Amino acid sequence: MLQPRIPVNPLPPGHAIPTARTEPVTAPAAAPVPSTTPRSSVQLTPGSAVALAAGGGAVVLVVGAVLVSMLLAVAISAASIAVVAVVLRLLVRDMQKGR
């Protein structure tokens, strides 16, 4: 019941069976397509290149400001937690001495 069933391939590997024979179809002669000059898909003028560089610089500045502010927030939180830990340690030490 739980025996694996291995499929049996009646043909050796690499032996292909031809399916259907297709006859080559000749297409009717079409009118020649006028050739167009190859053109790049994006054309940058000097003004758009400056705008693109300014936009990229603005994105870098905004992302940098966000990352620096997140780092500053983590540093301030860590410093405040360290101060609270020192104060609590001093309070617990004073309570144990019975003062």
- The secondary-structure element order is H
Q: Approximately how much beta-strand content do the residues carry?
A: under 5%
Counted by DSSP, the helix tally is: 1
N→C terminal distance: 80 Å
The number of E-state strands comes to: 0
- Provide the residue-averaged pLDDT: 83
Low-confidence stretches: none
Percent helix: 40-55%
Overall shape: it is: flat
Backbone CA Rg: 38 Å
Class by SSE composition: mainly alpha
What does the largest sheet look like? none
What does this 3D model show about the protein?
- The chain is mostly helical and about 100 residues long.
- It is built from 1 helix and no strands.
- The longest helix has about 50 residues.
- The protein starts with about 45 loop residues before the first helix and ends with a helix.
- The mean pLDDT is about 85.
Short description:
The protein has about 100 residues and is mostly helical. Helices cover about 55% and strands about 0% of the residues.
